[in-house]
Amino acid sequence: MNLCRRISGALTLFALLCFGCGSSPGGPAADAIPIDPDDILNFEFLYAHNCAGCHGPNGEGGASVALANPLYLAIADDSIMRRVTTNGVAGTLMPAFAKSAGGMLTDQQIDVIVRGIREQWSKPDVLHGVNAPLYSAPVGDASRGSQVFAVYCSSCHGPRGSGGPRARSIVDTSYLALVSDQALRTTVIVGIPDLGAPDWRGNVPGKAMSSQDISDVVAWLASQRTTFPGQPYLHSDNPAGEHQ
To answer: Hey, what domains does the chain have and what are their CATH numbers?
Structure first.
């Protein structure tokens, strides 16, 4: 009985000592210890703080392509997504995220993002056995592209691409200055579902665009870029420096 009391007393003292160590005055709480940013490998956190601003909180798109579009994930494999995330896309809003390219993420964190995007939003059977156009391809023929545009795109965007009854201008100079040829190609292939823009199969019922058609129409759109995009103020009554 005396031995039991001694053991019980020792356990009580041990518990008090442990409790005291964990909550001693001035000691940091376990959840207050700083975490090295390189050690964060949670997809939701990494996506929210690095991707959501342009691609949308749920991958639905915004300033950039919707990553939650299964068609996009079907044509852009992991190596493409990893390369774009690592190095960015010159001349566009997509920056380089890898530390090796001047960004703030480790290679492991980029792998977590790429893997998480595919696990969250890809659908392996989205193509239903149909061969999608290539993600990237050689530069097309702009003169032929104007004819392709007339067949596949003008019913929505207007005969010259400056806007129609169902879609806005696709040759707006500011828009073309901000978007890369690859982004144009991607949009033609996967469409913009939220805006009712069809993918490469749905512009003309029963007549899907070929990979060459897409290259040519992208070449025509690229040829509409101007050296100084935007609306110039050729005539104005306002003094210099007061343009709004």
So the answer is: 38-121 (1.10.760.10), 142-222 (1.10.760.10)
